[in-house]
């Protein structure tokens, strides 16, 4: 079986080494400095204290007729479309996308060809010590390598991974899995960026509680859209006490696991994490804005109206978080206070968002429609 690793970073190099050591014919496609290092020294990695060299082939270009059974696409989200465009000219039947993204897989197949995508996510992390790869698999209980269900090809892929002794799992809805993954990793990365000393973020108890609360709110918001949390163990974050989760997060942040699988990636890919932050919270706000606001504008004064006012308050809270802005505390009073605070938050969100990103928002048709709905809602709820 021939396998191509497209992207010779930490994840691609690590999977390439493991699959090559299991006896598969593995090629690694690289560019720039990484190509120079691999061509000169080979794919060197640390295993049980020893430095080994994986038996892989190194490529600097990919011919259209160079066919592989699987191509593993291990690039950052902001490099995804460029990579798919290049792979569209290649004849290989399957592309395994190990990428953090909220985009649907239909969008990717419009670029590279229908039926070629197997959505996946890696269960590994680490970094480079000079030119030597120092990485490890995440414990299976926490996060195995995950594949989305397609036409059955993912089963053959899973057998490849089990032969290489790489724990893996197959899920029915990979998009829901990706949403749940971002619901957790985005607040974790934000905690590092918000800390005065990112390396010691786990020692800040207040920051850990805020992070735990944000994770809980994210999972609750996804569940409110009737999206099944995947894997099911993520439900625990909705019901466990925030102080308890915050305490556990502090321990994880300070551990070797946190350093290898969380801290290193957050520090090395801030541009990717900021982009995912914007995508995720914009998705949360956009998805509820249109549904909740339209219902508020049309429904009569009733208990049902108050329920949607509460949802609107939540939307405004999330939308303001996208802007990284300070907003009033959540109201705990009666219906009138909830309405007033909802209106204040939404107006604050509008003004701040337009001031920060005028060229991206104020002239778009979607934003104008949303703004009109928010103004109408505020006028009728204050």
Keywords:
two-stranded antiparallel ribbon, Rossmann fold, alpha/beta, eight-stranded mixed β-sheet, 382 residues
What does this entry look like structurally?
Helix content is 55%, strand content 15%. The relative contact order is 0.08. An eight-stranded mixed sheet has the order 5-2-1-6-7-8-11-12, sandwiched between helices. It has 15 helices and twelve strands. α7 crosses α9. The protein is of the alpha/beta class and 382 residues long. It folds into three domains: 2-168, 3-Layer(aba) Sandwich (Rossmann fold), CATH 3.40.50; 176-268, no CATH class; 288-381, no CATH class. The radius of gyration is 23 Å and the shape is globular.
Mean of all residue-level pLDDT scores: 81
Level-2 CATH architecture of the largest domain:
3-Layer(aba) Sandwich
Instruction: Indicate the overall shape.
Output: globular
- Count structural domains: 3
Please render the helix and strand layout as text:
Layout: E1 2-6, H1 10-21, E2 25-29, H2 32-41, E3 43-47, E4 50-54, E5 57-59, E6 70-73, H3 80-87, E7 95-98, H4 105-112, E8 117-121, E9 124-129, E10 132-137, E11 145-148, H5 153-163, E12 168-171, H6 174-194, H7 205-224, H8 236-239, H9 242-254, H10 256-268, H11 270-298, H12 303-322, H13 335-356, H14 358-361, H15 365-381
Parallel strand pairs: 1-2, 1-6, 2-5, 6-7, 7-8, 11-12
Antiparallel strand pairs: 3-4, 8-11, 9-10
Helix pairs in contact: 6-7, 6-10, 6-11, 7-9, 11-12, 11-15, 12-13, 13-15
């Amino acid at each position: 079986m021939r396998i191509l690793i497209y992207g010779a970073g930490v994840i691609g190099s690590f999977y390439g080494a493991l699959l090559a050591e299991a006896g598969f014919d593995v090629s690694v496609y690289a560019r720039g400095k990484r190509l120079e290092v691999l061509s000169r020294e080979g794919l060197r990695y640390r295993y049980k204290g020893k430095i080994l060299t994986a038996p892989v082939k190194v490529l600097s270009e990919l011919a259209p007729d160079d066919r592989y059974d699987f191509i593993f696409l291990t690039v950052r989200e902001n490099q995804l479309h460029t990579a798919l465009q290049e792979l569209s000219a290649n004849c290989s039947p399957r592309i395994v996308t190990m990428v953090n993204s909220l985009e649907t897989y239909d969008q990717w197949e419009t670029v590279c060809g229908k039926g070629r995508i197997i959505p996946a996510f890696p269960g590994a992390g680490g970094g480079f010590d000079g030119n030597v790869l120092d990485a490890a698999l995440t414990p299976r209980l926490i996060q195995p390598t995950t594949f989305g269900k397609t036409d059955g090809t993912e089963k053959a892929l899973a057998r490849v991974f089990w032969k290489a002794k790489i724990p893996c799992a197959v899920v029915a809805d990979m998009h829901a899995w990706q949403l749940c993954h971002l619901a957790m990793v985005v607040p974790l990365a934000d905690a590092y960026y918000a800390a005065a000393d990112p390396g010691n973020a786990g020692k800040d108890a207040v920051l850990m509680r805020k992070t735990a609360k944000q994770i809980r709110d994210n999972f609750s918001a996804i569940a409110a859209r009737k999206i099944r949390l995947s894997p099911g163990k993520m439900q625990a974050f909705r019901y466990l006490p925030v102080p308890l989760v915050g305490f556990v997060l502090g321990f994880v942040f300070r551990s070797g696991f946190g350093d290898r699988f969380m801290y290193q990636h957050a520090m090395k890919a801030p541009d990717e994490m900021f982009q995912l932050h914007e995508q995720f919270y914009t998705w949360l706000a956009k998805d509820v804005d249109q549904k909740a606001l339209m219902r508020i504008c049309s429904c009569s004064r009733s208990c049902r109206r108050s329920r949607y006012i509460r949802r609107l308050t939540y939307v405004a809270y999330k939308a303001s978080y996208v802007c990284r802005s300070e907003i009033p505390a959540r109201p705990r009073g009666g219906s009138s206070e909830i309405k007033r605070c909802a209106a204040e938050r939404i107006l604050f969100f509008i003004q701040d968002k337009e001031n920060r990103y005028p060229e991206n928002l104020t002239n778009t048709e979607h934003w104008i429609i949303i703004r009109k709905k928010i103004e109408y809602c505020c006028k009728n709820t204050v």
